[in-house]
């Protein structure tokens, strides 16, 4: 198992390199980059918002309407601006260097976990990620934990009582939950329980209250759970169906196998058969889906939830940086998400061996 884990850990490096490289060159050739956005802000009189680009410099750029410059071919919006303004903006964002030089500098920085500074926020990318990570981890862990704690026992019960009334009405409820978009359910929860139109039981924004630091430890726990309840409920509403049906079908498949029939013929207790023999084999498929479930809760499933409940999580950070073409933040969040996903896949393989010691990854070569 040790040499297998070492190989998997070493494979993280080329995988990260390939993903970052492909996305880097796609983004570099895409129109509407940060330089274009900064030029557009100047042209429309919104100010540059760029450290190092002074108001006087921008003013001189406005005064020279009609001045031609060599940047017109690259940045269409730069027509009429002072070439010095364009040069200052491109230098600020590093676009005055050749693409291969920017690429290799990025790789060297990422090897050292140096993600640079945000282009549009006065903070480093690592600082922004550290600030956003607790929110995304909270949503991801709580949502995944609740989904597994509910879906696995429910799936087992549905497999044991396959075709019964319980199986039918429970399937109806989880299918209805699966059909409801998470953001619509979030809005419904706000209307009902967060002061929308009826009850005002839960807060609407943030992960903790403003006086969180002054609360005792038990008050902090209560305050945190008070804030996280509605976002987690909105996140998990559609997550039960897939895992519940996967658990049910896995157990049904195992229950019908010959070794279960033999165990029953020997007079073994039904619960012992179910939890000592069937459980270990049936849970392999369920464990295999853990990384995908966690990642979906961690990022893709939580972006809209973070927006609706005003939670500054990693998903919202990556989404905002994509819209604003904040390349350092974009690649930093992509790097972190990819690394977490790869590590979770390795953790999934380790869990396989705990569930079923007969699995030997070393034998796979």
TrEMBL record:
Domain of life: Bacteria
Transmembrane region(s): 9-30, 135-156, 168-194, 224-247, 282-309, 329-348
Membrane topology: Multi-pass membrane protein
Matches recorded under Gene3D superfamilies: MetI-like
Main localization (coarse): membrane
Residue span(s) of domain ABC transmembrane type-1: 133-348
UniProt entry tagged with the keyword Cell membrane: yes
Alphabetically ordered keywords of this record: Cell inner membrane, Cell membrane, Membrane, Transmembrane, Transmembrane helix, Transport
Cellular compartments annotated: Cell inner membrane; Cell membrane
Classification via PROSITE patterns: ABC_TM1 (PS50928)
Gene Ontology cellular-component annotations: plasma membrane
InterPro entries from the UniProt entry: MetI-like (IPR000515), MetI-like_sf (IPR035906)
Cleaved signal peptide residues: none
GO biological process assignments: microcin transport; transmembrane transport
NCBIfam families linked: PRK15133.1 (NF011712)
PANTHER family from the UniProt entry: INNER MEMBRANE ABC TRANSPORTER, INNER MEMBRANE ABC TRANSPORTER PERMEASE PROTEIN YEJB
Family: Belongs to the binding-protein-dependent transport system permease family. OppBC subfamily.
Protein's job: Probably part of a binding-protein-dependent transport system. Probably responsible for the translocation of the substrate across the membrane.
Identification of the protein by name: Inner membrane ABC transporter permease protein YejB
Organism from which the protein derives: Dryocola boscaweniae
């Amino acid at each position: 198992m040790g040499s297998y884990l070492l190989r998997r850990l070493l494979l993280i490096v080329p995988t990260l390199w390939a993903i970052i490289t492909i996305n880097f060159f796609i983004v570099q050739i895409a129109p509407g980059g940060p330089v274009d956005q900064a030029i557009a802000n100047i042209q429309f009189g919104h100010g540059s918002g760029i450290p190092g680009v002074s108001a006087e410099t921008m003013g001189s750029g406005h005064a020279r309407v009609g001045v031609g410059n060599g940047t017109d071919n690259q940045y269409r919006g730069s027509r009429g601006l002072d070439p010095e303004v364009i040069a200052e903006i491109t230098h600020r964002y590093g676009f005055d260097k050749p693409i291969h030089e920017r690429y290799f500098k990025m790789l060297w920085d990422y090897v050292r976990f140096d993600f640079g500074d945000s282009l549009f926020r006065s903070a480093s990318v690592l600082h922004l990620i550290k600030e956003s990570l607790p929110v995304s981890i909270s949503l991801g862990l709580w949502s995944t934990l609740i989904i597994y704690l509910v879906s696995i026992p429910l799936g087992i019960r549905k497999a044991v009582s396959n075709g019964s009334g319980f199986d039918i009405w429970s399937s109806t409820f989880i299918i209805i939950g699966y059909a409801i978009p998470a953001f619509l359910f979030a809005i419904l929860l706000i209307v009902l329980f967060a002061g929308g139109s009826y009850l005002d039981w839960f807060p609407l924004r943030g992960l903790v209250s403003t006086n969180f630091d002054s609360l005792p430890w038990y008050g902090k726990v209560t305050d945190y759970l008070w804030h996280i309840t509605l976002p987690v409920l909105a996140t998990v509403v559609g997550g039960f169906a897939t895992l519940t049906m996967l658990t049910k079908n896995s157990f049904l498949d195992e229950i019908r196998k010959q070794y279960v029939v033999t165990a029953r013929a020997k007079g073994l207790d039904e619960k012992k058969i179910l939890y000592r023999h069937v459980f270990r084999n049936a849970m392999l498929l369920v464990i295999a889906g853990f990384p995908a479930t966690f990642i979906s809760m961690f990022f893709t499933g939580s972006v809209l939830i973070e927006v609706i409940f005003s939670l500054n999580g990693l998903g919202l950070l990556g989404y905002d940086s994509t819209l604003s073409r904040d390349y350092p933040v974009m690649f930093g969040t992509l790097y972190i998400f990819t690394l977490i996903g790869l590590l979770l896949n390795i953790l999934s393989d380790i869990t396989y061996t705990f569930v079923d010691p007969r699995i030997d990854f070393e034998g796979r070569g």
